[in-house]
């Protein structure tokens, strides 16, 4: 019979304190501590204990032993740098979804924008949706992770461990296989089976950034190669077109699961051949990442017949920074603009002769512009000959007014704009919010006009 949480004889280790440095807008060195077999420097476990050694503190220690990461007690955190982390597990006791007094000042002090929050909550009368809504009141820029862990003093240790192991931390799916034939230029396409393919031939990715050593500041190591993952339309479902999806993450990381995989699965079920693009992050530039997306579009268009789509019916979309990346590509790197526009040493290939145009753009809590700054330059937007654009955003998003202003500027530039406002919704809702059916209807209409 499993041990119960009150019987856990776990002590918080002194070595789990935080050593923080850097600024919120720049990634800083993550701290690896705790579990020797499950280290995760991108994970912060912050908890508010009721009493010393109580179930919340014991759960925090168990989670650290299972997942690794840094553990900090709220109110005793010292110097904390949110930019060190990609995921934050928040532990506290609550009744009827009311946040305890220690949690609110912690959330109001630190900005966890673009980070994914997973609560683990002790008590009764709580439900996941209400707790996430309460947290988002203080962190409207954060992604809300599901599932939450709701537990009691009688919850077995195994159940907490199982929850921890189920969390999609850094789960972007499988990487491309080694060997030959694993790139978009060399692979044999299997339209009914998932594939994971590198976007560039090894040693020939257009770049202006020299990145050779990761001192802990970056999510990807220097040997990272951008790739795409296919999510085929299920057999028996009519194919409507293709969508390329760029997860967000402030160009520091990619929120592949909530803003990539979950969305691709939902769209493929509705008839869209879907592709998640794992583009280059910092220290690479927005422009280098945009070329990754353009390469992915060229691949899909080159194999339109294989995927059963009209080559004109290809859309790009992105979440937060992923939407900004999509806009950068459509403004500057679509058509037959290839990597030599950025890197004169890049050697073009046959795929570069295929257009990277997109028939539509999905800006999901995103805008045309750069990180945190939506453009209102009508002339710039007009110069891009931008396709119809779907804006979807929540009224409690910190960038709400920028979404409105950017959409207004796009309309003034002659872009066909569709807006879906989700009242009361914060930033980072991913596939939640029931916006996908509306996006599906809009995209079906757009594709009908391109044929």
What does this structure look like?
The chain has 451 residues and is of the alpha/beta class. Helix content is 27%, strand content 17%. It is built from eleven helices and 16 strands. It has helices spanning 55-67, 103-109, 128-138, 157-166, 256-269, 286-302, 304-307, 321-332, 378-383, 400-412, 436-450; strands at 43-47, 70-73, 87-93, 116-122, 143-144, 149-151, 196-198, 227-231, 241-246, 272-278, 314-319, 360-364, 369-370, 373-374, 389-394, 417-422. Strands 7-8-10-9-11-12-15-16 form an eight-stranded mixed sheet, with helices on both faces. Strands 1, 2, 3, 4, 5 and 6 form a six-stranded parallel sheet that branches. Strand 9, helix 5 and strand 10 (272-278) form a beta-alpha-beta unit. Helix 1 crosses helix 4 and helix 6 packs across helix 8 (321-332). The radius of gyration is 22 Å and the shape is globular. The N and C termini lie far apart (62 Å). Mean pLDDT is 88; it is low at 1-39.
SS strand fraction: 15-25%
Distance between the termini: 62 Å
General shape:
globular
Q: Supply the number of helical segments.
A: 11
Major sheet attributes? 8 strands, mixed
Placed side by side, the strands forming the largest sheet appear as: 7-8-10-9-11-12-15-16
Task: Round the Cα radius of gyration to an integer and report it.
Answer: 22 Å
Low-confidence stretches: 1-39
User: Using DSSP, what is the number of strands?
Assistant: 16
Helical percentage = 25-40%
Query: Can you write the helix and strand succession as a string?
Result: EHEEHEHEEHEEEHEHHEHEEEHEHEH
The secondary structure category is alpha/beta
Give the overall average pLDDT.
88
């Amino acid at each position: 019979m499993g041990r119960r949480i009150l019987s856990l004889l776990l002590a918080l280790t002194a070595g789990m304190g935080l050593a923080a440095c850097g600024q919120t807008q720049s990634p800083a060195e993550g701290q690896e501590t705790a579990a020797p077999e499950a280290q995760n420097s991108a994970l912060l476990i912050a908890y508010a204990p009721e009493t010393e050694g109580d179930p919340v503190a014991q759960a925090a220690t168990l989670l650290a032993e299972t997942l690794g990461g840094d553990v900090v007690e709220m109110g005793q955190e010292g110097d904390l740098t949110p930019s060190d982390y990609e995921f934050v597990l928040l532990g506290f006791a609550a009744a009827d979804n009311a946040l305890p007094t220690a949690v609110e000042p912690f959330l109001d002090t630190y900005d966890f924008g673009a980070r994914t929050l997973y609560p683990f909550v002790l008590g009764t009368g709580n439900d996941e949706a209400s707790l996430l809504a309460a947290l988002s009141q203080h962190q409207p820029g954060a992604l809300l992770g599901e599932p939450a862990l709701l537990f009691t003093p009688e919850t077995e240790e195994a159940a907490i461990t199982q929850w921890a192991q189920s969390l999609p931390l850094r789960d972007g799916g499988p990487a491309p296989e080694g060997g030959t034939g694993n790139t978009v230029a060399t692979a044999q396409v299997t339209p009914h089976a998932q594939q994971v393919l590198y976007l560039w031939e090894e040693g020939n990715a257009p770049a202006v950034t020299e990145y050779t050593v990761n001192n802990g500041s970056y999510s990807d190591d220097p040997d990272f190669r951008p790739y795409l993952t296919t999510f085929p339309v299920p057999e028996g479902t009519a194919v409507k077109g293709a969508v390329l999806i760029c997860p967000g993450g402030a160009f520091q990381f990619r929120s592949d699961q909530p803003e990539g995989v979950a969305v691709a699965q939902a769209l493929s079920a509705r008839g869209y051949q879907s592709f998640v693009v794992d583009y280059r992050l910092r220290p690479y530039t927005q422009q280098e990442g945009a070329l990754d997306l353009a390469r992915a579009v060229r691949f899909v268009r080159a194999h339109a017949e294989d995927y059963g789509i009209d080559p004109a019916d290809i859309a790009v979309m992105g979440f937060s920074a992923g939407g900004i990346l999509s806009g950068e590509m459509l403004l500057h790197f679509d058509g037959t603009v290839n990597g030599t526009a950025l890197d004169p040493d890049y050697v073009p290939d046959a795929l570069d002769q295929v257009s990277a145009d997109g028939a539509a753009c999905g800006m999901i809590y995103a805008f045309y512009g750069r990180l945190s700054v939506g453009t209102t330059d009508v002339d710039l937007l007009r110069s891009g000959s931008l396709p119809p654009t779907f804006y979807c955003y929540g009224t409690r998003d910190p960038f709400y007014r920028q979404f409105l202003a950017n959409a207004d500027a796009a309309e003034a530039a002659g872009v066909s704009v569709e807006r879906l406002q989700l009242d009361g919704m914060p930033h980072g809702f991913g596939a939640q919010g029931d916006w996908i059916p509306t996006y599906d209807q809009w995209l079906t209409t757009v594709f009908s006009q391109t044929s």
